Amino acid sequence: MPNRALGADVRVTEYRRLGRTDLEVSVLGFGTSPLGNVFGTIDPAEGRRAVHFAIERGINFFDVSPYYGLTLAESRLGEALIGNRDKIVLATKCGRYGPDRFDFSEKRVAASIDESLTRLGTDYVDLLQAHDVEFGDVQQIIDETIPAMRRIQEQGKARYIGITGYSLRTLVRIAEAVPVDTILSYCRYNLMVTDMDEILVPVVEKHRIGLVNAAPLHMGVLTEQGAPEWHPAPAEIREAGKKVAKLCRDRGSSVSELALRFCLDHPQASATLVGMATCHQVEANLRLLQAITDSELLNEVRILLSPVINRTWPSGRPENQDGTR
Ligand code: NAD
What we know:
The chain is of the alpha/beta class. Helices cover 37% and strands 16% of the residues. The chain contains eleven helices and twelve strands. The protein has helices at 44-56, 72-80, 106-120, 138-154, 168-177, 196-199, 201-207, 235-250, 255-264, 279-287, 295-305, and strands spanning 15-17, 24-26, 28-31, 61-63, 89-94, 96-98, 101-102, 125-130, 158-165, 182-186, 210-214, 271-275. It has an eight-stranded parallel beta barrel with strand order 3-4-5-8-9-10-11-12, surrounded by five helices. β4, α2 (72-80) and β5 (89-94) form a beta-alpha-beta unit. The structure holds nicotinamide-adenine-dinucleotide (NAD). Residues 31-34, 39, 63, 131-132, 164-165, 184, 186, 214-220, 223, 256, 273-277, 281, 284-285 line the site of nicotinamide-adenine-dinucleotide.
């Protein structure tokens, strides 16, 4: 049902090809971790409406994982996709099953896709990604996980395969060692950090790998609500987020709008994935597709953020970390 309470004319008009694949994704993608209550308990009916509203307005790229809400996000997305599966590009993941539960073995990955397909109510995903690769043994991911994912692709259960993670150097190391179709990088290109451009972009361009930029709001740091409890960023990053939120508010603007608009301008990312769980958020974020960045405010924000710009946090096994600043 069309949602008549919301604005009638905001919709996606731009779709980009994901690397060498034949997948055409909306520049604004729907991150579904909030559907798994990752950012706080949501109203599941509203989450379902948000998915339907997004599809109605041309958002066709949905990213999920068995990890989000420990399978809850996949189950909720699966319910919302009844009758809608063929309208979207569906991405899920394998290898991460809890905050400290990782298993990148062939056996687990083969079982994982079948479990995901059941929860998602479909017989294939468009993209299967190894989730948070810096928490795995990189050699195992190269020698065992990726080949196992290629077999899943041959079986028709996934159309393409990719990797995701925070550690840019680990993503690069894997992509240089074994062909992957896509890379999802998160919290490495937004108002707070841009090192994805130096470290990852040259590699995806060289191999024509599809690039997805996730977490434009720095996983909640760049929102009015602020970062959730579990957020790995050190205190000074959270504090800087609060200051930016106040500055934007004082200027009659909104931090999440400025932050998402900034990411939507990225030339190499096929899609920017933002986590959403309400129709209001979907509509607010769609509106930004037609908005122009307030460059004066952006400059002020950059100055305010300069003490923490490109500051990162440790993630993954010690040998896989990028080194923090
Ligand atoms: P995000 O930066 O997109 O921020 C999400 C938060 O912003 C949520 O609390 C959401 O409610 C809020 N939000 C969204 N739109 C808003 C608006 N208009 N106004 C105010 N608040 C708004 O962080 P994320 O959700 O972690 O990242 C996006 C998606 O990318 C995830 O849902 C997931 O699908 C994917 N992702 C993948 C990985 C990985 O594979 N390792 C890591 C991070 C994110």
